[in-house]
Amino acid sequence: MSGTYLGMPAFPKAAKASTQNTQLRANLTRATHTIRDKRAAAVTELDDWAELRAAGKAIKDRTLARLDHYLLQAEQAVTAAGGTVHWAADAAEANRIVADLVRATGESEVVKVKSMATQEIGLNEALAAEGITAYETDLAELIVQLGDDLPSHILVPAIHRNRAEIRDIFQDAMGRWGRPAPEGLTDSPAELAEAARLHLREKFLRAKIAVSGANFLVAETGTLVVVESEGNGRMCLTLPETLISVVGIEKVVPTWRDLEVFLQLLPRSSTAERMNPYTSTWTGTTDGDGPRAFHLVLLDNGRTDTLADEVGRQALRCIRCSACLNVCPVYERAGGHAYGSPYPGPIGAILTPQLRGTASEVDASLPYASTLCGACYEVCPVAIDIPEVLVHLREKVADQGTGHRAEKAAMKAATWLLDHPAAYTAATRAATRTRALHPRRLPLPGPAKAWTDSRDLPALPAESFRDWWKNTHPAGPRTEGNDPQ
Q1: I need a surface site. Which of 86, 294, 310, 325 has the fewest CB within 10 A?
Q2: What residues are paired with 244 via a beta bridge?
Q3: How far is 364 from 342, CA to CA, in rounded Å?
Q4: pTM here?
Q5: Tell me, what DSSP letter sits at residue 246?
């Protein structure tokens, strides 16, 4: 990945600030609870949801096991259909490819379909440095761009904003980017949507180049697929003369039959719909229909390194539905910006440290941004065991010496204590007998303070379990066969 969001602190520090923003927490709670409830209802409509989930997992694992084969097959199919394939090892190379393609046309602006891959590589900023303006056309991405903000959710990038805030952003910023907001704009959803439609329509009709990602790439035909809810993607994919698609190499699926499974899993897990309102597919170029030139940029950017990790590679199954964010108690309270990455929430906590590495303070902190409650695994439509990968990454962080020193010291002390029964008994008795003197929270200094400041110590019982057992079972434990007859 291109790096952390500029100036972002490690997760504990960022989360401490964001959890104190009451408006943010109210916005997130309202939105995530609404989405999760709708998703639960949509999923229960299918009797074979568990089988679909298992099929999605199996297809992804089978594809990842032969990823080289399917990527070459996809390249051959795209090329045969009139497209051009470019391979990008990292963010810098991908940005350079896209910038060169745009400059070759003589244009200085592009319209964009919502794309996590282009956020990951910082494409908008890279294009701006080359004098090229990228206009986001997804409504939520437009809100983020006009507000000079950062996305905070995979599916709903502006989930941290309420309607009043969006109205203010439109009124203040639309005129600087194009058509201004209508006079007297209210925070009515219909009025906000109409203001965005009018603002974007002139860009759709003027733009000669579009940039997209893709939800899936079908290897057997070289077909790319984008699913969306607003129709802006359809406009970008059909009207411009040149289409450039930046796609992570893990997005490939072998066949159309495999695609069928994901077109059932994705809409119900993301927007709680039976099917997406707009499912756009394109294969190369066709005379008189759609863009005259098509370029596919296949992006690695840490994915092959992730694939080499037998535990961590399951993160590459992700289909970006965001269901894990909507059930995560940490995300709900901390918000997406605290993760310092375009990929927030549970999936971001395991994907980002693998794509970027754990050398930075931000990335080393992400595997700890979880309670390990397992709710994310339960809702994942491709059965990514996020808690397993989190623990795996914590081990890696600890091994490289950048983990939580207090946690490692506590584990060593606990190991010694549990290996010495007499010392353990003495310690538990001392703890229970002095419980009236214990503080409500541990007054620890340094990084550990971020943990203890938000957690009360559990109340200790009046006696230890061993003392309770001895007092309530004076004759010793009973075994089968020694009951009195």
Answers
A1: 310
A2: 211, 295
A3: 16
A4: 0.85
A5: E
Give the number of other CB atoms < 10 A from CB of residue 432. Answer: 16
- Tell me the DSSP string of 15-43: HHHHTT-HHHHHHHHHHHHHHHHHHHHHH
Contact of 251 with 223, CB cutoff 8 Å: no
For residue 357, which phi and psi values (nearest 5 degrees)? 85, 175
| CB of 170 closer than 8 Å to CB of 192 | yes
Nearest one of 115, 82, 99, 109 to 233, comparing CA atoms: 115
| Cα separation, 119 vs 125, whole angstroms | 9
If one counts every other C-beta atom within 10 angstroms of the C-beta of residue 106, the result is 7
The whole-angstrom separation of Cα 398 and Cα 402 is: 6
Contact 267, 216 (CB under 8 A): no
Q: What is the strand order of the sheet 242-248 is part of?
A: 84-88, 293-299, 242-248, 209-212, 109-112, 133-136
CB 128 within 8 A of CB 134: yes
Rounded CA gap, 388 and 377, in Å? 9
Q: Which SS3 state, helix, strand or coil, does residue 463 take?
A: coil
Helix, strand, coil proportions of the chain in percent (round to 5)?
55, 10, 35
Stretch (H or E) spanning 79: helix 67-80
- pLDDT tier, 478 (very low <50, low <70, confident <90, very high otherwise): low
What CA–CA distance (Å, rounded) separates 267 from 276?
6
Name the strand (E) or helix (H) holding 223. strand 223-228
Amino acid at 127: L
Nearest residue to 336 (alpha-carbon basis) of 1, 33, 14: 14
pLDDT: which is higher, 55 or 466: 55
* φ, ψ (nearest 5 deg) of residue 140: -70, -40
Amino acid 446: pLDDT: 57
> How many Cβ atoms are within 10 Å of 133's Cβ, its own excluded?
14
Distances (CA, A) of 404 to 8, 314, 400: 19, 25, 11
